Amino acid sequence: MKTNIFSKTLQCLLAGILLSSAAFAAGNPPAEKFIKQGVWRGVFTISETQVPFNFEVKGKDAEHAVFTLLNGTRRDNFHVKRLGSDSLFIKMNTYDAALVAKINDDGTISGEYRSLVPGFRGNSLPFTAEYGKKYRFVEPGKDVPPTANLTGKWELKVYSKEQVPNKIALLKQNGNKLTGVIMQVTGDSRELEGTVQGNEFELSGFTGPSPKIYKGHINDDGTISGEIAAGIYDNTKFDGVKDDKAELPDPYKLTYLKEGYKKLDFTFPDLNGKPVSLSDDKYKGKVVIIEVVGTWCPNCTDQTVFLSPWFNKNKDRGVEAIAIGFEQKDSLKYAQYTLGKLRDKYNIQYDILFGGLADKKIVSQKLPALNKFVAFPTTIIIDRKGDVREIYTGYTGTVTGKYYQDYEKKFNKLLDELIAEPAPAIAAISNQDNNNNK
To answer: Which segments cross the bilayer (predicted)?
Structure first.
């Protein structure tokens, strides 16, 4: 049923493009349409759930347009390309997905959020959008007074096929307007925006990766219950209790070296196919930051936004960094494209290696010194002697406030301490020889 819907949507898009091309070939090129500048309201259909999102368009034509997704205070910008005279292609930057949309005669747009990963099936979500609608869930004037204020920290117990740790919700409510972020061991949801209507609430977010929605009910005892929808057929139930002392498992203790190990060892190809190892002279006597990431992973992107400028500022202090990317295809050629896009967009000046297919079990097999691999991203910090000094699971972005500030403070403190430690004598001689040979 769902596949038929997606196929029909795609057929309509292609038919529109073919008709436009035929008209042009007949000597009657159609007038090129473009979407109006200003704020829009879009709606995805995930299974049977409606997921609203907002975006803004600036620019009168595709060549100059900027497409901006709006989520609370967060802004994510994307470029627009034209397909034919009445269809648009909006690539989700470093995520291998895009919005493909047809401009309808009435000024609305309709289309799909589509995976661009070669051979990846079933990852399409239909959407429609209308111009000039700035609200997300409820039209102005139709709000229902909320029965409670959800501002605060909530512990969410999630019911899943696999046992998962509880999540933490940091919520802020002002009248009917609700904003917040959901944290879990893998990272955070990025900023969410929504509403409270009576004893019901909704939060949605779409920043480039798959859209998400959190829907729930405020119970008589002050607890909440609801469900999370993220991607096709991915629905989970949750219960929540307000608890200012609620915390996630310690991200510094989830992943560690197995007994008997002090060091990490690996060899992976860089984006030119050259094997790179921690035993290479480049890393001897240096503090090394290892990032296990994937371009499909929003928390990995946020971590890159943090690390890349930090490294560019500190790279002359005796520190190196390596990103090991695990991608949605086990193909170096594909990784050269996806990881290359990541490198170029965020000015990454440290080595980027290709680890293989994005699968936690595969990461564990390729980094056997780890007790287990819990989450993308994972940060591994190695001292000048080559010993692993710290492993941090996941990443909490700036929207998490104090959690991000604490992470940044501890990261900088540890790196300052490790950089200040003396380099081993052998490494110092090796580095001196390398400098003399330049």
So the answer is: none
